[in-house]
Design brief:
Radius of gyration of chain A: 14 Å
Largest sheet of chain B: 7 strands, mixed
Number of helices of chain A: 0
Order of helices and strands of chain A: EEEEEEEEEEE
Distance between the termini of chain B: 36 Å
Shape of chain A: globular
Number of strands of chain B: 11
Oligomer: heterodimer
Number of strands of chain A: 11
Strand content of chain B: over 45%
Largest interface: A-B, 23 and 25 residues
Radius of gyration of chain B: 13 Å
C-alpha cells in the first residue's frame, strides 16, 4: 500500500521560503499514470488544491500561487517537493501531499499523507 | 475555475439514520466527482470516485450518484465512525476544486 509522508519546517517567518518534501513508500514516483499533488487546509477551513507534478516534470499550480510555487520530483529519493516563496500569515495551514490516480486529465486523489502543520509568524 | 457548491454545510443525525449530501458544479463535469471523509486531525479518506465508484475497503453504505452538474453522496444507516466532515472534489478539469464541506454531527 502506498504511503506518503510530508517533512519540512513547521514554523516560518514572513517573507521566508517554505520547502516541503513528500517521501513515497510502497510505490514509485516514476510510475506512469500517477500524479503527485499538494493540497492545503487553512485552520478550521476546507481543502484547497495547490497543484500537481508528474514523474516527467510536467506540472500545474493554481493561479493565485503560480508565481510563488515550484514543484519538483526526485526519482532517486522517491520524493516530490513543494517550494513556496515569500510566505505570509495567509499561508498558515496544514499541507498534505497526495497521489492522484486514474486517467489523465480526470485523475482523482486516492492517497494522502498525514499532513504537516505550517505556521507563518513573526 | 469550476465551482463546487456543497450542501448542507452541516446536518444532525443519529446512528442508524440515512443522510444525503449534495454538490452542484458550476458547469457540466460528466461524472468526475470524488467524495472524501475527514475526521479531526486526520487526512481526508477517499470514499467514492468517478461519481459512483466505491473505493476499495469502503463500506457499501456509502453511495455516490449523479452526472453533469448535480451529485449526491448518500450514507445509509449511519455508524458512529461516520460522524465526520465530507467533501466533494471535481476531477474533471484543472484546477481541481473542492466543495466547502458538510459536517455530519450527532443529533
Amino acid at each position: 500500500q502506498v504511503q506518503l509522508q510530508e517533512s519540512g519546517p513547521g514554523l516560518l517567518k514572513p517573507s521566508q521560503t517554505l520547502a516541503l518534501t513528500c517521501t513515497v513508500s510502497g510505490g514509485s514516483v516514476s510510475s506512469g499514470g500517477y500524479y503527485w499533488s499538494w493540497i492545503r487546509q487553512h485552520p478550521g477551513k476546507g481543502l484547497e488544491w495547490i497543484g500537481f507534478i508528474s514523474y516527467s516534470g510536467s506540472n500545474y499550480s493554481i493561479a493565485p500561487l503560480k508565481s510563488r510555487v515550484t514543484m519538483s520530483v526526485d526519482k532517486v529519493k522517491n520524493q516530490f517537493s513543494l517550494k513556496m516563496t515569500s510566505v505570509t500569515a495567509a499561508d498558515t495551514a496544514v499541507y498534505f501531499c497526495a497521489r492522484e490516480n486514474g486517467y489523465y486529465p480526470t485523475t482523482w486523489v486516492d492517497y494522502w499523507g498525514h499532513g504537516i502543520v505550517v505556521t507563518v509568524s513573526s | 475555475d469550476i465551482q463546487m457548491t456543497q450542501s448542507p454545510s452541516s446536518l444532525s443525525a443519529s446512528v442508524g439514520d440515512g443522510v444525503t449530501i449534495t454538490c452542484r458544479a458550476s458547469q457540466g463535469i460528466l461524472n468526475d466527482v470524488a467524495w472524501y471523509q475527514q475526521t479531526p486531525g486526520k487526512a481526508p479518506k477517499l470514499l467514492i470516485y468517478a461519481g459512483s465508484s466505491l473505493q476499495n475497503g469502503v463500506p457499501s453504505r456509502f453511495r455516490g450518484s449523479g452526472s453533469g452538474t448535480d451529485f449526491t453522496l448518500a450514507i445509509t444507516s449511519l455508524q458512529p465512525e461516520d460522524f465526520a466532515i465530507y467533501y466533494c472534489l471535481q476531477h474533471n478539469s484543472y484546477p481541481r476544486t473542492f466543495g466547502q464541506g458538510t459536517r455530519v454531527e450527532f443529533k
